[in-house]
Amino acid sequence: MSDQPSTLAPPTGFEPDLGHHGDAEATAGLIDLAVNVRRARPPAWLADPIAATLTDLARYPDPVPARAAVAARHHRHPNEVLLTAGAAEGFVLIAQALRGVRRPVVVHPQFTEPEAALRAAGHQVERVLLDAADDFRLDPSRVPADADLVMIGNPTNPTSVLHPARTVAALARPGRVLVVDEAFADTTTAPGHPGEPESLAERRDLPGLLVVRSLTKTWGLAGLRIGYLLGEAELLSRLAAVQPLWAVSTPALAAASACASVVAVQAERAIAADLAADRDHLVARLADLPGVRVVGRPASAFVLLHLPGAARIRAALRERGWAVRRGDTFPGLGPDWLRVAVRDRNTTDAFIDVLRETMEA
Q1: What structural domains does the chain harbor?
Q2: N or C: which end of the chain has fewer CB within 10 A?
Q3: Do β-strands 104-108 and 209-214 pair in parallel, antiparallel, or remain unpaired?
Q4: Are 208 and 62 in contact (CB under 8 A)?
Q5: What tens digit of pLDDT does each residue of 108-143 get?
């Protein structure tokens, strides 16, 4: 891999608001296409174990059973799992525990919390900005050879690009921590593949690999805060050393155990297949709108759009009762980008009608 300073964009000039998230767009009364959390009620096999814990909250949380369940799901040892209060806590632990890294690099556009956590911990962050003309696909040679911490999402929020596992794995090397945000990995599918076709969650051969996972998106648990990290035991022990005691609540631990079950994995894959069909419908309807460009082949629960005047259109959509995610808070994007969550076909059809009217107004 070559070190090409010209490909790097240190934070200068206009700075996107890294603390802005889709929930700020989805105000009460609006139809929410801004937040990527699935809205269906949790099934009984998930809701019942969570509810059962509410009669035993005097006891301190015990993470051991949940850690073992998650480890078994990903064919790992329990000491290769660190449970967290959502993926966001995982990014904070990484930033705090790895203060000694010399050259942290974040590959953008992507979820902004990894960089925000690094900055808050005092790191001087460099950015690798992927090319919109190339549909934001990863080129490993763009990452400096001496970067000792690299963070990337797969599938990436907000682009919905799913990078090949072999391409992401090419970033791993001795002396480097490679953080792969797989918060939306369970939304991906491929013909003939049983699920999560490009995930690195079960890879134990890549040096310095940390995989970040979230259980809040597919299962509608954003308010519960549950996620986990997968990686080498020694590396996870460094992160655990800066984690507060009992960081993950008893109800969240029950959710982690339930979501690691065989029943959960089967349900997850069925949901991903349904999502793919709904996403294809959204992409096909968007293709009918002149001037709207959908990035690449979206692979997750959202699509990224480019259209001139998107900032004006987003504001007009709000007036008509619809919330979509602005793109200018993501490094590497700007005011002419919008992220739209995949919903059921009836909601999509109604949205397309309103979007067309808004664009023509």
Answers
A1: 16-39+265-360 (3.90.1150.10), 44-260 (3.40.640.10)
A2: C
A3: unpaired
A4: no
A5: 999 999 999 999 999 999 999 999 999 999 999 999
